[in-house]
Amino acid sequence: MTKNSKLFPQTGIITLALAALLALDGGWVLAKKRDPATPNNRGWDFSAMVKAPEKARAKRNPLESDPDAPAAGEKLFQQHCAECHDRSAEGRQRGPSLRATEVQRAAPGTLFWILTNGVVRRGMPDWSRLPEPERWQIVSYLKSLGTSPAKPGDRGHD
């Protein structure tokens, strides 16, 4: 035990906690970026969406004309996604706003691909175990949200 660790025994715990936080989700804290030109991105990096293969992006939502799909998707969202993305999909510390312009402009196939594969290094699990129609219902719900205006003073999670 060093002299400083005797005086400040919590230092080792704080250092360990900080190291764990930085390692969590592949450096989540360091990967977040703020783009002031896009007020709804809340400081998150949405680059995982560009990794969706062209074939996945081109997929159309087979439920896009089903008027019941968004409501069913909302129920599923509340069960599986709200813990990280908030009940209103506005985002939390653990997950970005799904009302962000980047998400709302994304092709339905891209969102489906993200749901299916997750963004594991950012802490989002894959939801491939959900039946395909349920994943499309969640996509329908997300696309029904639209963007929400930035609140005055909203600086994201800088």
Structure description:
Helices cover 46% and strands 0% of the residues. The chain has helices at residues 3-7, 10-23, 28-31, 54-57, 69-80, 82-85, 101-105, 108-117, 132-145. Helix 5 (69-80) crosses helix 9 and helix 8 (108-117) crosses helix 9. The radius of gyration is 18 Å and the shape is globular. The two termini are 35 Å apart.
**In sequence order, what are the helices and strands, one letter per element?**
HHHHHHHHH
* Rg: 18 Å
Terminal residue distance: 35 Å
- Count of distinct strands: 0
Number of helices: 9
Strand content: under 5%
Instruction: Label the overall shape.
Output: globular
Structural class: mainly alpha
How confident overall, as mean pLDDT?
75
Low-confidence spans: 14-42, 150-158
Roughly what percent helix? 40-55%
Q: Main β-sheet: number of strands, strand sense, barrel status?
A: none
Topology record:
Blueprint (H helix, E strand, L loop, with lengths): L2 H5 L2 H14 L4 H4 L22 H4 L11 H12 L1 H4 L15 H5 L2 H10 L14 H14 L13
Helix pairs in contact: 5-9, 8-9
What can be said about this structure in brief?
With 158 residues, this protein is mainly alpha-helical. The protein has helices spanning 3-7, 10-23, 28-31, 54-57, 69-80, 82-85, 101-105, 108-117, 132-145.
Name the features.
about 160 residues, mainly alpha, about 0% strand
